[in-house]
Amino acid sequence: MVPTKSPAVATSVNDFTVLPLRVPGLPSYPKDTTHHLYLRANAPKAPTADTPREVFLVNVPIDATDVHLRSLFANQLGGARVESVAFEGARVGKGITAPVAPARKKRKRGQEDGESAAPAEVGLLPETWDRETHCSGGTAIVTFVDKPSAESGLREARRAVKSGKTITWGEVIDGKVPALGLARYAAHHKRRHPSHHALQESIDAYMTTFAAQEAARAKALARQRAEPDEDGFITVVRGGRSDLAREDAVRLKEEELKKRQEKMIGEGFYKFQHRERKKKESQALVGQFEMDRRRVEEMRKRRGG
Amino acid sequence: MAPSNAKRRKLEHVSSGEDDDDSFAGFSGSEEDSSESAQPSVNAESVGQDFAQGLGMDDGGIDENPAEEPESTVHLEQAVARASREEQAIVNGAAKTAQPKQMPMANKISYSRSYESGPSKSGIFKLQMDDMLERVRPRQGKREAAAEAALHRLKQTIEQIAPRPAQSVEDAERALLKEKIVIPFPDPRPSKDVLYKLEYAKPANITVVGSHVLKVTSAVRRLLQIDMVVQMPSHLLQSKDYLNYRFFYKRAYYLACVAAALSGAHGDEYSVSYSSMHDNVLLPVIQVRPTGKTSSVADKPAKAPAWQIDIALSAADDVFSAEKLGMSKNCVRKNDEQVKAHDSPTPLYNSSLRTCMLMNAYLVLQHKAASSCAAYRDACLMGSLWLESKRLGSSISRGGFGNFEWGVIVALLLRGGGPNGKALLGPGYSSYQLFKATLQLLALQDLRKKPLVVGEAKSFTESSEWPVVWDAERSHNILYKMTDWSYQALQSTAKRTLAALGDQHFDAFDSTFTTPVSSRLLDHDCLIELAHAALAKSATTKRERSSPLLSDLYAVLRRGLGDRVDEVDLHVPSTPDWNIGVARPPPSTGSVTVGLRVDPEHAHRLVDHGPSADNKAEAAAFRAFWGDKAKLRRFRDGSILESLVWATEEAGQSVVEQVCRYLLGKHFGARVEGSARFVGDECIPLLWKANGIAPFQPLMEAYKQLETDIRGLEALPLSIRQIMSADAQLRFASIEAPSITHGIKQAAPAAVTLQFEGSSRWPDDLVAVQRTKLAFLLKLGELMNDNVEAVQSRMGLENQGEDVSNQGFLDITYDNGAAFRLRIHHEREQGMLERQMKLKELDPKTKQTSALALASYKRDFVKGSAHTQAIAQLATRFPGFTGTVRLIKKWFASHLLSNHIPDEIMELCVARSFTQPDPWSVPSSTQNGFLRTLAWLAKWNWREEPLIVDMSGSGELKDVGYQAIGTRFEAWRKLDPALNRVVLFAASHVDHDGTTWTDGQPSKVVAGRMTALAGAAMQAVEAQSIDLDPASLFVSPLEDYDFVLHLSAAAFGSRKKSKETGFKNLKVQNTADTSLVGFQPAEDFLTELQTLYGAAIVFFCGGAERKVIAGLWSPLTAPRAWKVNLRVF
């Protein structure tokens, strides 16, 4: 079952170059392993202006950071300079989504439509990890400073594959990225318990912005309600008198009224009620019987009788 | 469904009454339609939302249907009326032969009503029962034919045996010895100087009796057993032969003659051997079996003989007077003692003799019952299945209550037994009613104190200390083979079955009829195994009984253990059949097993109070019984009592074991005591601090302190509605009891939720709500730090990136070490999330996060706290509960399943074995609860059965609840038939959803492994029984996994890593470091592994119980052959 490395790994698959990376052993597992990184020039369905200077990577190591990739191209593959790296976002379901534009470090904040970007910047909660990891087998897009760098990066990779040069993953980045292992979790533990002060500040900032936003929105809605559009109609918008709490109250009231109505009439008042009740009962009985019969038959089948 | 269409169908049904299967097909069809319409919309991306809709539709589907056909009301009314008239007739079994498929609708209604507990209970029990009866009813097959052919041949042979003249005992023995046959004389064998002669003459008649000829045996039995009776001619017997074993000697000789003839004529076809009838040494019988290739040894079930004919001898029913063989009469006179009155009664002897005389009479009785009562045979079949599954039988070793006794009692009750001599059962009863009424008699009437007398009881006046069902007409005690303990066992079994049958909500069918009560280890809390031989040597018997020794043993243990045990049961090995060349079976080498059912409240009491010293007679008896152990003591209240003091249990032996060992040594000698093996709570040492809920008390007190502290804060912006606990440690259910001694901080803080009074000032935005909660927590932390002594609080963040989920918590650590994790419960979150999920314009990803947030909201804030309360209540209600839960959790952890199976599911499984203990009683020891839970896990068919537990103990889960849960379960299975999302479905009275804990959690692979592991454990229990080492159940090899990561101790927050600091005071500071509370790197690591590699690898982890993470590659990642992508168009 273990996906052992087949003896001969193809040097290229379709138009991907297969670059073997040596992952050095660890004290707990002192054996070198080989990781295969797949590279090709980026060719999305809808190319953008940046496409020519991008390289598409598949099967990115889980611990890859932009530092790793920068140093890979700069120090080990001929010195091409990388401008930025975009890793694949979260996986959705089983399918792999195409890599998105550079992941926004800033989280989206609820109210998506029509919100200006300005308030999204403030009030973020502190990051709890010192370094991100990526799903196994993920993709990334490396954007080089210019098109020749991208081409040279790819070329160097192909040459390295051909010459059988050993490239060690993460060789020259010691100390530039936070350590993994127990240290990572210790750091995480530390970071997820931020200082009182920092947290308070962030929340205060958020709440202030939120309040301002709410006020602005209420104002906008009020304006919309008051002003007819060019055709002379007034848009019906949410807000005003019917807020959420009120809706609940209305529903409760409705239910109460209904209950009162039922109580007034009573259960066995009309003949048809009695009749209907009886009918329902007998039908329920029959339905139950049918269901039971089916279940027993299933049971018998299961027993193989 | 067009109304006209519906009308037409209804009319049809009224006119024909047969063809209405169509209309029901319509019913079910429409149901399926509604669910199918929901089905295609399910896909992996947005299951949550669609699913909720699907459920809604399905719920409605059933309710809406009835409203569609208003025209047919009248017709239906008529049908129902007719049904109720017919009901009784159908119950009586008149309609039983009809196949359910052609059943008219009226019958369907009545059928489902005929189940006597009213409309709420489904008729599924009855359907199952009929189905089962159909399958087990005796039929004529190959082996029956073979056995009957053999019967004819045996009969011929016996009829042709030449008579033997009257001879003295010695001559007779010698003559037979020439043919290598020994006369199976009972013990004591006749003395040489007896004057009477032994003689053989042609039998008066030969008949076949018993269950085979009455057609009341189940056809699925492995062994077809036929009883053949040869009646000795009356002229061989004299009127005084009932005395002093003379009848039995003559009978033995007659039997030996028959055996000689049979082995001579059929020795090569059949194996002929002696056996004792129902383990009764007085009544040897001949056993005839086919000699296949096998040696007729029963230990090879695959090759065991298909049939067996027991040839018993009877006498005419008028040879001896019935009065002289009454229960209080003595028939074994001692020569030296002339005074008759001093002879103790010999009921077993008398009844054995009566049995020989009454064989034909009981056949007639049962025949009459079968012909007068249509359901009699079925009731007997049910009884026999029930007895079989409870391991009860006619032979003395199996309790002395079997098919024959069952059948005769039912037959007797059909003729009498009620008040004023009226029949207790009516001939019109259904088989189920007969069955249940008989069970009720067995369960509720103590036949020892108040014997059941059927018929005019002239000769019966006395009550005795053993159970009696007196058949006055034939003056015979049906239960003569039963002992005190076997009767008690029968009674409690019947009680349990009745309770299970009375339970409205659970299908008691399997536990009543089909599930065998397997290992004794599961049945009893304690087992004591004694070597039979050692026990036999210490015989000090006075009473005439089937097994005097055992009676003594029972009496001693029963008296000595007192209220420490509820039940004492003895199990003896049954007598094997023996060669016809030997007089008696080889002495038993087996062992006697004593099973105890412990009362957990009293079992661990260290001091027993005896009678007061003033009460001379009682005190003397007490001293005589207890010997040196009895000490006179003065107690605090001034009383001076005889008393017993036992060593504390920490010394290694439980009090029950000490008592038993002491008594065995005192009353049966050191040899017996030495041979005794005691099996009790072997699981206890597996847990650290296993004594009930006590180890959790410090944390519970700290929790109370926390509550008062929080409520005491005055400057909080909102008032507090409630504080709830939602953590395994706060419901007495974590593997390790929380250690909060010596100021060592608790590693895992206990989760607590805090709910404020409602306020309209909460924001209407989910993200903002989460931030507001954080703000509240900050404020609370500040206040705690300022106002409360000896406490530290610290904010923490969680669910980073999912900003509609809970974002943070407050860790509150007391200086004594107790740590709590406080989260704020805002009740409007649910509504807001639900509303958000309904928004149409939302993208699937946001929808999914909302669904996840909603699920975790329900889990953490609503269901979690309710579940915690329910489990905590159970833990206080049942003393063995906490230990069982902890042991089960340890078991799951040892098998590296604890990261897949949620804690709550394990707790529910255990709660199930305590609240629905059937077919056992409520487990009273940890080991018992553990093994029974495993037994249930092994046979839980989670594909088709939901786990529903009503933990309230007061029936809080109502019919509606059960129905709702059932509907939900079926809906889930319909929507997700491949079990990709929900595998285990577990609901309780506080959680009707059933998927709160198991949505996506254990995959099919893991659930399958759980079942397989539990099955393997049960096999070990079955195979090793008393030799079982419970620790071996917790050993799981790592070879099954593709790779294993061994984690260092540091990964589990072990505090040993501070050992490099050389200074003692620094070390202490370090352990008291609050910043390490909640630091669980192994868990974080596992979570990260799962997110990174979860698509290709399944990880298994057992937490701190076993410091490894094992991995299994998904089959999808297996190396595949390279394929050319060719397509033919």
Automatic annotation (TrEMBL), chain A:
Question: Which Gene3D superfamilies does the annotation name?
Answer: 6.10.250.1770
The cross-references to Pfam families, in alphabetical order and at most eight, read: RRM_Rrp7, RRP7
- Organism superkingdom: Eukaryota
Return the protein name.
Answer: Ribosomal RNA-processing protein 7 C-terminal domain-containing protein
Query: So what family is this one in?
Result: Belongs to the RRP7 family.
Naming one, the record's GO cellular component terms include: CURI complex
Span of domain Rrp7 RRM-like N-terminal? 13-187
Output the InterPro entries linked to this UniProt entry.
RRM_Rrp7 (IPR040447), RRP7 (IPR040446), RRP7_C (IPR024326)
Residue ranges of every copy of the Ribosomal RNA-processing protein 7 C-terminal domain listed in the record: 191-303
- Any one Gene Ontology biological process term? rRNA processing
UniProtKB/TrEMBL annotation, chain B:
Domain Nrap protein intervals:
226-371, 375-514, 532-668, 693-876, 878-1035, 1038-1126
Any idea where this protein resides? Nucleus, Nucleolus
Indicate the principal place this protein occupies in or around the cell.
Answer: nucleus
Protein name as annotated: U3 small nucleolar RNA-associated protein 22
A single GO cellular-component term from the record reads:
CURI complex
**Could you tell me the Gene Ontology terms of the biological process aspect for this record?**
rRNA processing; tRNA export from nucleus
Q: Where is the composition biased (Basic residues)?
A: 1-11
Fetch the Pfam families from UniProt.
Nrap, Nrap_D2, Nrap_D3, Nrap_D4, Nrap_D5, Nrap_D6
Keyword annotations of the record:
Nucleus, Ribonucleoprotein, Ribosome biogenesis, RNA-binding, rRNA processing
The source's superkingdom equals: Eukaryota
Q: Which organism is it from?
A: Cryoendolithus antarcticus
List where Acidic residues composition bias occurs: 60-71
